[in-house]
Design goal:
Protein name: 18S rRNA (guanine-N(7))-methyltransferase
Helix content: 25-40%
Radius of gyration: 20 Å
Largest sheet: 7 strands, mixed
GO molecular function: rRNA (guanine) methyltransferase activity
CATH topology of one domain: Rossmann fold
Catalytic activity: a guanosine in 18S rRNA + S-adenosyl-L-methionine = an N(7)-methylguanosine in 18S rRNA + S-adenosyl-L-homocysteine
Number of strands: 7
Subunit structure: Heterodimer with TRMT112; this heterodimerization is necessary for the metabolic stability and activity of the catalytic subunit BUD23. Interacts with GRIP1.
Order of helices and strands: HEHEHEEHEHEEH
Number of helices: 6
CATH architecture of one domain: 3-Layer(aba) Sandwich
Structural class: alpha/beta
InterPro entries: Bud23-like, Bud23_C, Methyltransf_11, SAM-dependent_MTases_sf
Strand order of the largest sheet: 3-2-1-4-5-7-6
Length: 254
Amino acid sequence: SSRVVEIQSQMSERAVELLGLPEDRPCLLLDVGCGSGLSGDYISDEGHYWIGMDISPAMLDVAVEREVEGDLLLADVGHGIPFRPGMFDGCISISAVQWLCNADKKSHSPPKRLYRFFSTLYTALARGSRAVLQLYPENSEQLELITAQAMRAGFTGGMVVDYPNSAKAKKFFLCLFVGASGTLPKGLGTECADGEEIHQAKFTNERTRFRNVKGKSVKKSRDWILEKKERRRRQGKEVRADTKYTGRKRRPRF
């Protein structure tokens, strides 16, 4: 429908804007999950070149019929990005990366597929470039899984959330940097009425929890600390043993 096309174009425009491309030269971009090439149309209109990857032959057939300007590749990005190192000046992806969280086959391991995707994407991107992946996460766990694998693969950056207070307009953009870490762009609609900023979720230093209040351990509580320690143990890090003092408040003075 035309509404879907309109939203898709808006998100493509925003993703390209978040890439912060140089204005003085055409760039080569990778479009992950390019579908029928709607994002590609915008990239071409901006004077850039692109290669699109998609897992759906039917969608790519539509792109061919529409005579898009980009080159098209039928492939599952969970198997990795098959391009030479440093080839792309940036990568965008609209509403696609969350599909890597699904295990469609018995042999599929979402963390492995995500890591394969991010590590090969990291290699295929030029140093100093960015990847901006708009996604529809099902829940906070998915967001964490995706972000953790991106960081494991060497990316820095984090989630840029546009219109965080709007149920309809809220959009998640995972904004990733290759090499030198940039400043995370601000999300749209993050200024409150009184001009105060809503703090972005930055994954580079402070990891903000994406859990809603229901079923969430209060920050710094004993449960919260135990959960955090358990997570760190699973990552193979050294963690102090739990004791009866774990998570206890200290008295104001000894």
